[in-house]
Amino acid sequence: MLVVISACSGKSEAIRRDTLVVGLEAAPLTLDPRLAIDAYSTKLCRLLHRGLFRLNSRLEPIPDLVESYEFKAPLTYHFTLKKALTFQDGSPLTAADVKATLESVVDPALASPYRSALEKIASIEVTGDDQLDITLKEPLASLLANLTLGIIPENNPKIGAGPYQLQEFKPNDRVVLVRNPHYSTAARLDTLIFRIIPDDNLRVLELMNGKIDLLLNNVPPLLVEPLSHRANLQVQTTQGINVNYLGLNLQEEHLQKLVVRQALALALNIPELIQYRMAGLAHTAKGWLAPMHWAYEPEVKGYAYDPNEARRLLDQAGYPDPDGAGPLPRFTLTFKTSTKKDRIGLARLYARYWKDVGVEVKILPFEWATLFHDIQLGKFQIFSLTWVGLTEPDLPPLGANRGHYANPVMDQLTAEGRREMDTGKRKEIYSYVQKIMGDDLPSIPLWYEDNVAVQQKNVKGLQLRPDGSFEALTEVYKE
Asked: Fewer beta carbons within 10 angstroms: which end of the chain, N or C?
């Protein structure tokens, strides 16, 4: 990798001062906020669409389209929208649009991944152009966070009310956004161009040559330090909440057994991986929620590197090593990952650790869209992903129970957590939830990734958010 840095001698190309070019490693799968669940779809939708609420820098829901709201006991919220709201085409944004958007999400025909977040809504009543009541079937503590979902004109997801509007979307090439002239607080740059460059080396070379202004959380960790020494570039890092994890299919014969899952976790030397593969730009995770989260529970069971204990547990599970330290495995599993070089490299390291305790793992790389589709359908034994923007402590996270985890106690606790409106009591409930997740190990959390931005020296105003959101780009400008 370092050869790439030293060999680069391309001539810089100037980018207009009113335009920011951002490099992406993968294309968004959709720009419909009701369907967006992969990282880049979600991040871009936050620039194109606005919800009744948005998350602040501490990841708490605060009013966005809403001017005011009140809780009318026992289960009704009354919302008043801000005056003179418009979509990007200048048409008015009314309470009727809010009602239509939320009801479309709940409609099974749309197959929205956010349906479960809103299905506790019993009714939505429009009481005026800028007034509506939402009545719940039962108390729902996460309602305001769920109402960060982008609002669209009736069944037209191409138009939103965000700070930018879509000008061009060429799949696997680029997404071009231009400033929304009807937005109340204008973004500082006229145009955002997101170039889709899956190859890490090419993406970094384009940055070095001045053809890209910014790479956010998609620079190979081992290149960050060398890039920080280049005269035309600057690097920002902050601790983040995005968690890298291994998904496990608990319907697979071997992975059904808790001791096997524990053995797989104990066989991995996470601090070593963070130091040598992540260049120290991550922090070991014992659970889903990062330490900065209000519901974080520090006393979750961890699985520190212990290959001898891993071997003992595999023996206990009924999978003795057939030839001791020889080449024959106890059993074989498949591991699905993306075609990105760093992801394949990490998968090979996981496989090497597991081979050391007698488990053979075959790595199956797929293009991102295919990989994510298979994961959503539960077509995997093991996979690796990063969960981006996990803010609600309702575990397992929305749509993430792809491994068929089932625990009646967990179901009861999470149901109580959704109904409990007192934050202190919710924290107590979710402390139990996190401890159960640590004990049951339905997936293996690895590390919380630091947010890393590498940008041209003339790019100013970027304040990294804990979730790595693109909303920070509205404050960016160029000297």
From this structure: C
Residues 383, 260, 359: CA angle, nearest 5 degrees = 70
Q: Tell me what pLDDT residue 277 has.
A: 92
Q: Is the pLDDT of residue 14 over 70?
A: no
Q: Which residues contact 325 (CB under 8 A, 6 or more apart)?
A: none
Q: Amino acid identity of 374?
A: D
Tell me the per-residue pLDDT of 320-349, one tens digit each, with 9 for 90 and over: 999 887 889 999 999 999 998 889 999 999
10 Å CB burial of residue 146 (0-12, 13-18, 19+) is buried
Separation CA 330–CA 359 (nearest Å): 6
| pTM confidence score | 0.84
Q: Please report which helix (H) or strand (E) contains residue 216, including its range.
A: strand 214-216
Provide the token pair at 355. 């081979």
Q: What is the 3-state secondary structure (H, E, C) of 142-204?
A: CHHHHCCCCCCCCCCCCCCCCCEEEEEEECCCEEEEEECCCCCCCCCCCEEEEEECCCHHHHH
- Quote the tokens at residue 265: 């976790």
Strand partners, 234: 455
> Of the spans 108-112, 388-392, 420-424, which averages the highest pLDDT?
108-112
Half-sphere exposure of 195 (CA within 13 A, CB side): 18
What do you get for the CA distance between the two ends of the chain, in Å? 31
C-alpha distances in Å from residue 340, one per residue of 219, 272, 458: 12, 21, 29
Domains and CATH numbers, the chain: 2-29+162-239+451-478 (3.40.190.10), 50-146 (3.90.76.10), 243-449 (3.10.105.10)
Pick from 208, 164, 221: nearest CA to 345: 221
